[in-house]
Each structure stands twice: as C-alpha cells, then as structure tokens.
Amino acid sequence: MTLEKALLEAIKEAENTDKEPEAIKLLLMELSGYTPSEFYIKYKEQADPMLLNLFEEKYKDYLYKDIPIQHILGYSYFYGRKFIVDHNVLIPRRETEELVEQVLIYSDTYFEKLETIKAIDLGCGSGCITISLALEEPKMKIEGLDISSEAIEVAKRNNKALESNVDFKVSDLFKEAKGQYDILVSNPPYIPDLEKVDKIVDKEPHVALFGGEEGLDFYELILKNARPYLKEKALIAFEHGYQQKEAIRKIAEKYFSDAIIIQKEDLQGKDRFTFIGLGGV
Ligand code: GLN
Prior knowledge:
This protein is α/β, with parallel strands linked by helices.
C-alpha cells in the first residue's frame, strides 16, 4: 500500500463524517516524519506498514472519537511557533494571538523605558501566551502560573523546546506570585458552567474551560485580589467571552475605579478583550 492510497481511502471515509479531510492529510504528513517535499517523493512508493497502521489508528480516533486533531498530533501553532499540547491544556486559540499582540503594543508604548518589564500570566495553561510574550519582547520577565500541575508540566516542556526563559509555577491564582508587576495578562476559563460545549471542545480540560455560573468567577477573583501585585503604573489584559463585555467592565470599575478601561473586538468583530490601565497606562 502506498501513502497516496492510504490517504485517499481515509479522506473518502472522512466524507461520511463531520471532520476535516485537510486534518487527515496533516496527520499523515506529521506521522511520516517527512518534510513536505520528501512526502510527495515517497507518496507513490510502498509505505512502511508500521506507519500505515499508526495512521489508521490515529485517523480513526480523529474521525470517530471526537478527539481534537491537535491532541492527536500533539502540537498546535500559536504566534508562529509550535506548542506541545495534550489533554491537560487548552488548545491555543487564534484570537488569543491578538491578546499577545495587544500586550506587545502596550508594552512598547507604556513600558519601553523600563529595563525589564515584570509580567505575570494567570492561568497560563500550555504557556502559549507567556512564552510568546517572553520571546517577542526580550525585556519581558514573565511568570506563568496555573493551578493544574499537569498544565505546568506541558508549559515547562514548551519553555524548554522553545528556549524561552519563563518561570512556570503551580499556583492557585496569585498564591505563588512575588512582588509587583507591570503587566498582568490572563485568558482565564470563561464559559458558564452549564453551557453546552461542542463535543470536541468537551475533550479539553474542564478546569480550563468553565468559569462559574456566568463564566465570570475568575475575573472577579483576579480583580479583587490584583491591586497589591500591581505597580502604580500597570496594565491588566484579559481575554473573555464575547457576551461578557459589560459584566467585565462592571467588575473592573468596582475594583479599579481609578483605571482607564478599554475594550476591544477581535478580528471576527466579537467583543473579546478588556484592558485596564493604571497610573496613566
Ligand atoms: N492561557 C492559556 C491559553 O490562552 C490557557 C487558558 C486556559 O486554560 N483557560 O491558551
């Protein structure tokens, strides 16, 4: 059997499901270990039976077990880099790249005079935000905290693989935070507890998805406790659900009546980000 035949058969099988044929091709390329050009050279040759068996097992998992393709591949791309992901971490989302981009713009604008920018990422998961910020802004000295020790293991593996210098720690919110920060960034779990999620999303860790009755618990907890951890001039940057804009503004005003609050849409036009600036930020 050739790779071509195996791939065509799998794609045909996918047509009877709601899954993406493109993901199956990616899966075979990844499992083969070939570069794209090698792949097309080997495409019509007899393939290694071990590879074919592995491919069959994995694509069936994808087609019939509702496992996210990123979990099967073991990685996902974020801000141009490859991050290890597994069932213990949230799969990095496209819109979260925009949060990173915004924080980089803020740090260029308001913190550029600092020698080091001290930052913290609460609920860092895979470390996608944390590591991207650390690598994009060398002045950023950032810590990543998460309550899940399994997630922190994944974040540490990413830190090593991508040669970044983030300090990752298991911590219930601020518990392990030390000192005061210029920037606090967080994409906490924000889905309301009883909301029904897509069956594939449901395979992601619930601790990373659900944020209390209205999905707002972590914003409340973070903002209620943040003040002592922030410098006088500081930025809080949140991602949130697109229906949570008003509620988050209210929580922000409750604890930071002295702040400038700016809310932004993502590229899809959805209300997705809230920035809270203190001391002139
Ligand atoms: N900060 C990580 C991300 O944005 C994890 C978020 C989470 O687990 N809720 O992907």
